[in-house]
Amino acid sequence: MPFLELEKLTKSFGGHNAVDGLTLGVEKGEFVALLGPSGCGKTTTLQMIAGFVEPTSGAIRLGGKDLLAMKPAKRGLGIVFQSYALFPHMTVAENVGFGLEMQGVTAAERRTRVAETLELVGLGTFASRFPRQMSGGQQQRVALARALVIRPQVLLLDEPLSNLDAKLREGMQIELRQIQRTVGTTTILVTHDQAEAMALSDRIVVMNQGKAEQIGPPHEAYERPATAFVANFLGKTNLVDGASVRPERISFAAAGLAGTVRTRIFQGNHWLYQVDTASGLVTVIRQNTGEAMPGEGDAVHLLWEGRA
Amino acid sequence: MSRNGPLALAYHTLFVAFMLAPILVVCWVAFTPEGFLSFPTDRWSLRWFEAIARYPEFISAFWRSLWLGAISSAIAVAISVPAALAIGRYRFRGREALTALFMSPLMIPHLVLGIAFLRFFTQIGLGGTFAGLVLSHIVVVLPFALRLTLASAVGLDRSIEHAAVSLGASESVVLRRITLPLVLPGLVSGWALAFINSFDELTMTVFIAAPGTETLPVRMFLYIQDNIDPLVTSVSACVIAVTVVALVILDRAFGLERMLVGRSASHGR
After folding, report:
1. Residue A23 resides in a domain
2. Considering the domain boundaries, does residue A30 fall inside one?
3. Is there a single domain that holds both residue A59 and residue A88?
4. For position B268, what pLDDT does the model report?
5. Does B265 touch chain A (CB under 8 A)?
6. In a domain? residue A308
7. Tag placement on chain A: N or C end, fewer CB within 10 Å?
8. Nearest C-alpha of chain A: how many angstroms from B169?
9. How far apart are CA A165 and CA A192, in angstroms?
């Protein structure tokens, strides 16, 4: 039996199913990403687990116990919000210690655990700062520390990195993954960013219109998308003669699908091509290996594995 | 941020001068040694400030106005907080009507309110009492208290409270430790604005106050009906001085600009 179970979870808003019969099992210690475009129901799902939204029907069980029967304050979940939702009138230490205070942990133990957790997220020296004196990335870490310090049964991350700039986001992804591995907390991430979902999670749930289109490890979903929606949402894809082909799997060869290079864009570590062929416009990505590459207007032949 | 052009600058200067001129004139005249409202004056004296001491009814009226403003504004804010939290954050039947009801004293002329309260208070035996003054002032200042409290309640990020709940806080703890501290700036500015309105109120109060429960504006109004001398200007100058000091203190404590635009962003100590 999975640690966290969602069973036929449904939420209707005025006749429209925001979440439509979602069934999902999450194992202990697993990192699962709910991935999809805005309005796909991923955030509503998270809020139902957290207890801020009541499901119309279905069940949520945590460790075999009915989670829906518990008040949100009693569920023991750690949540990191998109806006961080730090308490602006409290210092970093007070923010992080708040959950422990609610649990009745003594002041002395609170100090130790707050210090440990701040150390874990790399903010050991920031305890007496106020949130507004910190950068977005630092506030993000405080939010993570505040959620982790109560040793939550499940950690819920709601678009935690979407307010950070691209470079910082990449660094935080790596760090977030390391921290999650270290503490081993079962984690659910809600995101619209496919790169983030693939980088962080053990399994991804690709959601569309309230339903799970595919549930599986990132690599598997990318390589063998169950639906056209999944193929399109997880990176670029070509639909050639009814088959889905990833741009990086296509190479230039002496023979194959004939075409003409329409545009060529240099992107540092790779080249991005758009090639006019008899089967339509095909996107091709080639690694930059330093070799000479076809230019715009050149006649080329495209070849990929599985092409008849 | 765009800079003001010379024309806009001239306009702003004129506007500020227009706002400040009456206040400056009043303060200037207050220092005249003459027995009439002489302006401009080039001789200075504190005679009319000393004169205040000979009119204990002015001093007692000042204290009464201070207490009246403080008490009625505090009660108005106490009513505003739950109202603002409900109106600002929930969609329920009768929400619009409730808002309109709370705001309605703004739309009724104070003259009408004065006559109505006079009749009503006489009927229920509160005529000419301090309690009656407090009740009527609560009604008049409530819209001001509610407006600013509402602004900060609306601006409050719900996920901050959700975060507290997820960390195990009960509803009363969330209210006490999170929600109230976060709306405090709006609450204080709402109180301050309500206080200023109460302290300044004449049109309605002149009907309700009786000898012995006169507020400062009423006392001054009655005084200038009989005498035109610089005493009212020296009293006014004192009130202006107290107001300026109060504003400076509020600005240091909460940031005046943020208070008066009713932002909810909290201020650390």
Report:
1. yes
2. yes
3. yes
4. 35
5. yes
6. no
7. C
8. 6
9. 15
Tokens for B188?
């204080």
Nearest to A102 among B157, B169, B181 (CB): B169
Expressed as residue numbers, the domain containing A203 is: 4-229
Of B160, B168, B170, the CB nearest to A103: B168
What CATH number did the domain enclosing A269 receive?
2.40.50.140
Q: Which helix (H) or strand (E) holds B135?
A: helix B130-154
Q: How confident is the model at residue B205 (pLDDT cuts 50, 70, 90)?
A: very high
Q: In this structure, are A186 and A244 located in the same domain?
A: no
Cβ separation A89–B266 shorter than 8 A:
yes
Beta-carbon neighbour count of residue B105 at 10 Å?
18
Which residue ranges of chain A lie beneath pLDDT 50? none
Q: Taking a contact as any Cβ pair under 8 Å apart, which residues of chain B between 155 and 174 contact chain A?
A: 157, 159-160, 162-170, 173
Q: Do both A267 and A153 map to the same domain?
A: no
Domain boundary (A187, A204, A229) is at A229
| Residue A178 sits in the same domain as residue A285 | no
Mutation target vs A (from B89, B161, B165, B166; most A CBs, 10 A cutoff): B166
Domain boundaries, chain B: 53-261
Whether the ipTM is more than 0.90: the answer is no
Q: A with B: how many residue pairs have Cβ under 8 Å apart? A: 66
Residue of B162, B168, B265 with shortest CB distance to A85: B162
Question: Do A193 and A73 lie in a common domain?
Answer: yes
Nearest to A77 among B166, B170, B268 (CB): B166
**Nearest residue on chain B to A100, judged by CA atoms?**
B167
Architecture of domain B53-261: Orthogonal Bundle (1.10)
Q: Are residues A188 and A117 in the same domain?
A: yes
Same domain, A138 and A284: no
**pLDDT confidence of residue B261:** 57
Task: Show the tokens assigned to B143.
Answer: 């819209």
Chain A, nearest residue to B267 by Cα: A89
**Do the Cβ atoms of B160 and A74 come within 8 Å?**
no
Sheet-wide strand order for A280-287: A251-253, A299-303, A257-266, A270-277, A280-287
Amino acid at A136: G
- The answer to whether the beta carbons of residues A160 and A143 sit under 8 Å apart is yes
Average pLDDT, chain A: 90
Residue among B160, B166, B178 whose CB faces A50 most closely: B166
**pLDDT at B78 exceeding the cut of 70:** yes
| pLDDT > 90 fraction of chain A, expressed in percent and rounded | 61
At residue A246, the pLDDT reads 87
- pLDDT band of residue B262 (cuts 50, 70, 90) is very low
Q: What is the pLDDT at residue B167?
A: 94
Q: Is A49 exposed, middle or buried (0-12, 13-18, 19+ CB in 10 A)?
A: buried
Count other Cβ atoms within 10 Å, centred on residue A36: 29
pTM, to two decimals: 0.79
What 3-state DSSP class applies to B68?
helix
Confirm whether A32 is domain-assigned: yes
* pLDDT at position B258: 64
Total domain count, chain A: 2
Contact status of B89 with chain A (Cβ, < 8 Å): no
Name the pLDDT band for B2 (thresholds 50, 70, 90).
low
Dist. CA B167–CA B41, nearest whole Å: 67
Are A145 and A197 members of one domain? yes
- pLDDT at position B21: 92
Are residues B164 and A98, on separate chains, in Cβ contact within 8 Å?
A: yes
